[in-house]
């Protein structure tokens, strides 16, 4: 089972620059749907790649769904040569996104985030409106119910019910 | 509209226009497919969640995931 708090603390303690996206971001906004992994959009700056690699090393990251024993090396070089990684770690499943649909990098989406305090630290969470846009732009049928729920949350705010 | 249900790698057809609108900073028009899904959203759950702090929502998510994991484990052990 993914330890959301543990993963967030690990990334925060390691000084990693990232934005919470995906199901956990949706939950932070009030969504009731369960999600089983943590999705983050991370900065691709060389210094941040070093921090990300160092922070996750103790968690033994490995490619999720890959057969055991592949020569997968977890370091900043691997991060540099890749972009999006779906990982298993000792604290659960973690998706690292260097970019989301339509060129959404950390730097581009940072202005569309909100500071949210979780477990005693401040995290950047993609705004509700931007989360809806990103999911709609991705166009994945599996996201349709999640988008509907996010739009319902937005409607609740707009109607003053929240 | 969904291009072809059952082919999860395909985008639903509204997505391309939405990318352009999103890039231009324009508000997205309502999507009829999403509007249809919205009718089935349980708003009572949302309203309860919106009474919580973000941290409380994440803790609740964690407990739901733990519960579902336990149910799965129980199901596997019965087989």
Task: Characterize the structure shown.
The complex is a heterodimer of chains A (162) and B (79). Chain A is an alpha/beta fold. Chain A is built from seven helices and seven strands, in the order H-E-H-E-H-E-H-E-E-H-E-E-H-H. Chain A has helices at 4-13, 22-29, 46-56, 76-81, 106-109, 128-138, 144-159; strands at residues 18-21, 37-42, 62-63, 85-89, 92-97, 113-118, 121-126. In chain A, strands 3-4-5-2-1-7-6 form a seven-stranded mixed β-sheet. The longest helix of chain A has 16 residues, at 144-159. Chain B has two domains: 1-40, no CATH class; 42-79, no CATH class. In chain B, 63% of the residues lie in helices and 0% in strands. The longest helix of chain B has 25 residues, at 54-78. Chain B is extended. Chain B starts with 13 loop residues before the first helix and ends with a helix. Mean pLDDT of chain B is 78; it is low at 1-13. Chains A and B meet through helix 2, strand 6, helix 6 and helix 7 of A and helix 1, helix 2, helix 3 and helix 4 of B.
- Could you describe the largest sheet of chain B, including whether it forms a barrel? none
What structural class do you assign from the helix and strand content of chain A? alpha/beta
Report Rg of chain A.
Answer: 16 Å
Oligomer: heterodimer
* Most residues in contact, chain pair and counts: A-B, 45 and 43 residues
Strand portion of chain A:
15-25%
How many discrete domains of chain A?
Answer: 1
Mean pLDDT reading of chain A: 95
Count of DSSP-assigned helices of chain B: 4
Low-pLDDT residue spans of chain A = none
Give the number of helices of chain A.
7
Which CATH-level-2 architecture of chain A?
A: 2-Layer Sandwich
Structural class of chain B: mainly alpha
Strand arrangement across the biggest beta sheet of chain A: 3-4-5-2-1-7-6
CATH topology of chain A: Beta Polymerase, domain 2
Mean pLDDT of chain B, nearest integer? 78
State the domain count of chain B: 2
């Amino acid at each position: 089972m993914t330890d959301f708090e543990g993963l967030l603390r690990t990334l925060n303690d390691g000084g990693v620059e990232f934005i919470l996206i995906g199901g956990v971001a949706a939950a932070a906004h009030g969504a009731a749907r369960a999600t089983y992994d943590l999705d983050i959009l991370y900065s691709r700056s060389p210094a941040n790649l070093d921090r990300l690699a160092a922070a996750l090393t103790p968690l033994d990251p490995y490619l999720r769904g890959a057969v055991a024993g592949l020569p997968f090396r977890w370091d900043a070089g691997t991060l540099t040569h890749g972009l999006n990684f779906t990982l298993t770690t000792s604290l659960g499943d973690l998706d690292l996104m260097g970019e989301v649909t339509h060129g959404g990098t950390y730097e581009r989406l940072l202005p569309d985030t909100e500071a949210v305090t979780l477990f005693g630290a401040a995290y950047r969470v993609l705004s509700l409106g931007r989360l809806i846009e990103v999911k709609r732009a991705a166009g994945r049928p599996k996201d349709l119910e999640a988008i509907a729920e996010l739009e319902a949350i937005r409607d609740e705010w707009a109607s003053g019910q929240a | 509209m969904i291009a072809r249900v059952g082919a999860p790698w395909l985008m639903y057809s509204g997505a391309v226009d939405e990318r352009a609108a999103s890039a231009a900073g324009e508000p997205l028009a309502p999507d009829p497919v999403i509007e249809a899904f919205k009718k089935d959203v349980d708003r009572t759950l949302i309203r309860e969640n919106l009474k919580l702090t973000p941290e409380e929502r994440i803790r609740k998510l964690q407990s739901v995931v733990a519960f579902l994991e336990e149910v799965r484990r129980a199901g596997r052990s019965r087989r």
